[in-house]
Amino acid sequence: MYKSLIIANTPLHCLIIKSILKESKPKTGVFLVYLTKNINKKDLNYFNKINLFFENSILIDLNSSAGLIQLFKLLLTLRKKKFKSIYIGQLKTAFNRVLLLSTINYTKKYGEIYSYDDGIGNLNVGGYFDVIKEHWISSFIFKVFNKNLLYKNLKTFISCHFTIFPPDFNIFPNSTFVSLLDLSNSLNKPSNNNTINILLTTPYYDIGRLSKQISVGLFNNVIEKYKIDYLLPHPKDTLMNNYKINQSKIIDTNMIAEEWILKLLKYNTSNVKLFAFGSSTLLTMMNIPGVEVIYLTNPYAKINTIFKKMNIRSEAIV
User: Fold this and answer.
1) What domains appear along the chain, each with residue ranges and CATH number?
2) What are the tens digits of pLDDT across the range 40-52?
3) 76, 107, 243, 309: which sits with the fewest CB atoms below 10 Å from its CB?
């Protein structure tokens, strides 16, 4: 019998889960479900790292027919199973709540439900996770099958929310801090005046926010203005070949930005300046020795006040 169900959707989730459970040996009776769309090498890397710690685990690509068949079989497997605890990151995602529907629809008692951060959206008042309104399709499904799984109701069942950010800034009131990064291996102290400039991209074009021309121009302005040494592209960014930077400086890695930068610091004695348009990585790296984070603003995106509240330096790009 399984004691806990863990639902993850991103590499970041895997690191947070590891911090929450403080894994040092395999967890018996724990079932890990990793749901994502268009599996990439980062997904595979972090799933393969963390699934060794659990009795059972499954990785499902929701954008494939085979993945949807896997999901259906999983729903049948989980049906009527009772879990003492459930951990879930993207609390509002319909597919995640369908899994909960499968496990608790037939029981009167709920196990403890714990949530954890998905990213900067957990800090934005009036943002995605703060607004209780949801898509009409998911609203209809859960009104019919289990009203407790409507987002506005499910939020009230959260026993504890685990955050990698200062708890006072989280939209979930019952938040507890967990450290995302393992700093047990000492980093090199910067011993020279050299600075490595790193830019994290945002997939404005790929998510339909900006045209290709405007998006490329925006990032090329940053590359030229700050003499960017390395580019860490977002996994969804398909415009890498259009940026004015040597292709060898575009980092192709199966690590998330935080871990790649920590690895760089471990074997380097230079300082790091990290530039990004609103990435949560700025917040997770803001207190790392030798790292300066800069929040970039632009005319096409609303300014996120959370960076100002955390006293992060900002610069405007036009």
Assistant:
1) 4-177 (3.40.50), 195-316 (3.40.50)
2) 999 999 999 998 8
3) 76
